[in-house]
Every structure is written in structure tokens, then in C-alpha cells.
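S1.2 Input.
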Amino acid sequence: MTYRILAVCTGNICRSPMAEYAVREALEHAGLSDRVDVASVGTTGEEVGRPIDPRAGALLRTHGIDASAHRARQMGAKEILQADLVLALDHDHVAPVQRVVGEENPERLAMVRDFAPEPVADTGIRDPWWGDEGDFQIAWEQITEATAGILAHVRGELERAQAPGARR
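S1.3 Output.
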């Protein structure tokens, strides 16, 4: 079984690729990268084909992550429906995903910060594109704060899928 995670933001050049690479890195360190695929998309097509925002790319490089191959993509129904977990980066990304997912499997959609170690008052991660490097750092901290919780969730899902009588 391959578990699929899809991070979603607006243009797929800042927050969702930062989440994609952070989660992928955490999965590699946990020894789960061979069982989990991680990707990212945007709710709009305005950035399709563009590379990661230079500020986000620079921040990732400071953490030893090379995102130079990233190209923005727009979400499609097939990819959303194939995902086991769709991670929305902000509140305005929820409705476009829900329109695709519909009423079935509402547990497949979550906010990244739903996985923070302590409950947070606002689960949204604001778009750093409008700000400066400090705003990218804040987004990165909010994303990486949640990665341990995302990992725990994925481990649980993988264990459930392997349990006798489990259905996929």
C-alpha cells in the first residue's frame, strides 16, 4: 500500500511546496518514504509551471532541502480523490477541496496545523508571498511544528491498513 499525501495552497509556489518538502524530509528520516508519496498543488492555475518562490526555495536550502525541480501545478479531481490525506494550508483552501471530495470521507481533509502538538486558535497558515523572509520563516515554523503529528497520523493509518481484515 502506498499512502498518498497532498498539500494544497493557492498557487503552489510557497506554502504547499514547503509543506510537501518538510513532510517528505520527515518521512525519509522516519524510514517511511518508501510507503508514502507526498505532492503539492494549488487551488488556482495562476502560477502553473512556475518554480518555487525564491524566498521559499532559499529557506528550504538553509535546511538542506533542494526544491529547484519544483514546478507549480493546479489541483485536479483525480489527484484529490486518490489522496489519503489532503493537507490544506489555509482556510480558503478547504472549500475547493471539499467541492471535489464531497460528503464522503471528510476525514481525508485536514488543516496542516490540526497536527500541531498543542491546539492552536487559528489553524490557518497565512500566505507569506505578500510579506518578506520573516513571513516565510513563520510559515515554515508553523508547518514543521505539525510534521511530527502528521507522521504519527500516517503511521497509524499505515498500521490500520496492515491490520487483519483492513480494507483499502
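S1.4 Remarks. The longest helix spans residues 133-162.
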